[in-house]
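call fold target=Phosphoribosylformylglycinamidine cyclo-ligase
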Amino acid sequence: MSAANQPVTYASAGVDTEAGDRAVELMKDAVRATHGPQVLGGVGGFAGLYDASALTRYLRPLLASSTDGVGTKVAIAQAMDVHDTIGFDLVGMVVDDIVVVGAEPLVMTDYIATGSVVPERVAAIVRGIAAACAETGTALVGGETAEHPGLLGPDEYDVAGAATGVVEADALLGPERVRAGDVVVAMASSGLHSNGYSLVRRVVQLAGWSLDRHVDELGRELGLELLEPTRLYTRPCLDLARDPAAEVRVFSHVTGGGLAANLARVIPRGLAADVDRSCWTVPPVFDMVRGLGQVPWADLERTLNLGVGMVAVVGPAGADPAIASLRAAGIDAWVLGTVGEDQGEPAGTDVVRGAKGVDGGTVHLRNGYRAG
């Protein structure tokens, strides 16, 4: 019998179902650790079950949902063969998007596509997701690992996730709460987070730098800096939203598009947020990317978070209580600017209006950045 006439099995096509089963066994305990009494059925069912009877205490519960991935940051994890931190990036990108409206996360599911299932690698990814879910109070109720030989290389993978949360209707945060006189409070990022890695990787590649290169300005190897997990703002932001002294109007998660574009999404039409670029020092990793690739500041601020990972818009008297609360939670915070009537384009400012399909307000950016 010729090779062309040999029997074809799923295994010979490149899919190892037994490896998938082993991966599930390795991750089960980590996933179970995110389950409270509301989760029914355990691990391995066709659907994750969550007892929503607690929602009956809500007068008008609104469900909030989000889905996202971590972009090409997975290429750094694969190159370094470090897979237990990328889950924090995934949870940060997904869960903290629903926190923006004041929603408390309830459940999350994940999806991993890979060229070849290596049980230990898949389990490491899921353990990271589970650890981040536990930190944010989110139950990891299901997931899928798909083996795609021929589409992805044996050591390649991508991850995505989706989460659902709930918020009482009269506690919903949003642009409609924002008023002239409000204050914009910045929350420090932990580094690059999970956006702009196509730019960062290209800069590093053209410079010929290896991931094990020690960078004095960073105080560690380049690869370790690039893999720094996304900061999770979930619980500090929810605590802040519940604090009447903070007068929280809305949050803005600084992800793809940078600070101004994401802040403009939560400013209503007719108002403008005035942001002073010089009120914080841009962390060294961002200045490294800029200098190494001769990246213009304008391009950098449209791509990376530049040290601000989340923003809160609070009432005029809410800035000091908000900053104190965030710092007590271990997050550096400071006043970024104020909100006022949109009176056109002040001289010496850069202007961003609306973003990502939102017909929103305006952000004025003034002064230059201070590099660390």
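return ok
The longest helix spans residues 119-136. The chain has eleven helices and 17 strands.
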